[in-house]
Sequence to fold (258 residues):
Amino acid sequence: MKFGKRLKQHIQETLPDWRDKFLSYKDLKKLVRLISSAPLLSNESTEYGKVEAEFVYLLNSEIDKFNAFFMEQEEDFIIRNKELQHRIEIVIETWGENGRQASEEKYKEEMSKIRKDIINFHGEMVLLEHYSNINYTGLGKIVKKYDKRTGGLLRLPFIQTVLQQPFFTTDLISKLVKECENTIDGVFPVNEVEEKVREGIIVAGDEGIFRNTVAALMSMQEIRRGSSTYSRFSLPPLNLPDSDLIRSLHVNSPIPIV
Fold:
């Protein structure tokens, strides 16, 4: 399947609410087609320089869009992560075994709510990592197509610049994702999660986020799978951590991924 169709499919399966935040691949592809079908231009001509400058301007506009959205989401995730950790502390201090108003029933009730919120939160962050992966992949493909159609040499310097962009730098999000997994594995009973998984019960509080997260993980594995065209600018293969939360997301979900 060509990338344009795959991109549309990935968005529909994983992030339909973020549709306008993704790479405008179709529009860029049309521009490449127009450039390549124009009268042959010398790579050193003034006209060629203008055409390439316009194309790069549009690419940079797309990157600005990615960065603005990504950093906004990242900031929100940092705040929400602190709030979730604080909620756990309050529940333990208030209704935990040694709490001020110790109550096993109330403790389980409140922790169950937090667990659902954490899993939904984890899912949203996985979706943002997917957003980064697929937009990076799309930029690489459209610039490669430009070079192939025009004889240009844009891909190498452009991708080197992209590697330094905020939307591509997902270290902080990956750290928050890992913290969520450690919280689930450390604070909540493992046997309870495993039992729900075996019974085919969705442990996430929001079925839409659960479905989209599973689809995003599958999509990222496909995007980052090694191939004969692998290069130093290719994303590394996705190795999922051995976490109860990840295992619960990766079971055969009763929700169809459509």
